[in-house]
Design a protein that fits this description.
By secondary structure, the protein is α+β, with helices and mostly antiparallel strands. It is built from six helices and seven strands; from the N terminus they run H-H-E-E-E-H-E-E-E-H-H-H-E. It has a single domain, classed as Phosphatase 2c, domain 1 (4-Layer Sandwich), CATH 3.60.40.10. A hairpin with a 4-residue loop joins strand 1 and strand 2.
Length: about 180
Amino acid sequence: MANLQANLRSQYAMAVNDLGRLLESVNRLFCENTADSSFATLFFADYDDFTRRLRYVNCGHLPGLLLRAGQGSQGGSDESRGVDRLESTSTVLGLFDDWHCDVAEVKLAPGDTLVLYTDGASEAARADGKQFGESRVIDTMRAHCRLSPAALLEAIVDAVREFSPGEQQDDITLVVARCTA
């Protein structure tokens, strides 16, 4: 991970306007500097406040979840808010020298909330083996959509821990961001 982070930091300034080229360069360096079996998933995004445009590359990571504000504010309930899944645009980083990624783009509206999470949240399991899953992440997002991003993050973590109260088997990493204007 340190290698990947260092590569991203060193390459970002040179290719900020070309995410595809940036990630292709990072993948090449990652391949050259790690064991053949090393790989990483990555969700990398660039947000423009002025245009409210989110450009992203999802390298084999779980889909980002974008809870749309507009659908719940037009007479529907919070539970009926639409969720867009920001799917993979390429395979994982580090396994292939000849690697290409597509850059996807989505326009945000005020109140839209983006949640990125690791499999430590979705794969948290009860004693019977049942996992928390993406659908419970979405249900929790909808149920607590009026909370601040920080409070929503805590609500998701609390829901995961309540569902799977035993010892955590994997780390839980979350990013919650909201478009405000």
